Amino acid sequence: MAYNPQVVEANIVSDNTKNGLFEIVAVLKDRTKCRIGYERTASGEEHATHINRLFTAPCPVCRKDFLCSCMNNFMPTIAEQALQLVKTKA
Q1: What are the backbone angles phi and psi of residue 60, rounded to the nearest 5°?
Q2: Residue 1 is assigned to a structural domain of this protein
Q3: Which of 20, 30, 49, 78 suits 39 as a labelling partner, its CA being 20 to 30 A distant?
Q4: At a CB cut-off of 8 Å and minimum separation 6, what does 86 contact?
C-alpha cells in the first residue's frame, strides 16, 4: 500500500518578511507533524525548501522512531496541501 499524506491542519509558525523565508507546521491525517520551510521569490512565488518530521510519532513510512528522510519523498504533496490550508485561513 502506497503512503498518501493528507494535511488536516497547518499553521505558520515563523515569517521573516525581510528575506522571504517562512515555516509552516502541518499535521497529517495519521497524526504525523512536519515542519516545512518555504521561500518567497522576488516575483512572489512560494516554494518549499525543506521538510522535517517532528518526533511526536514514529514515521508512517518506515516506522522508525528516530531521524529518517522519508518525508523528503512526499515534500511537494505535503507542502502544497499545507500552503493551501494556510491561504484559506487568511
Answers
A1: -70, -15
A2: no
A3: 30
A4: 10, 11, 12, 24
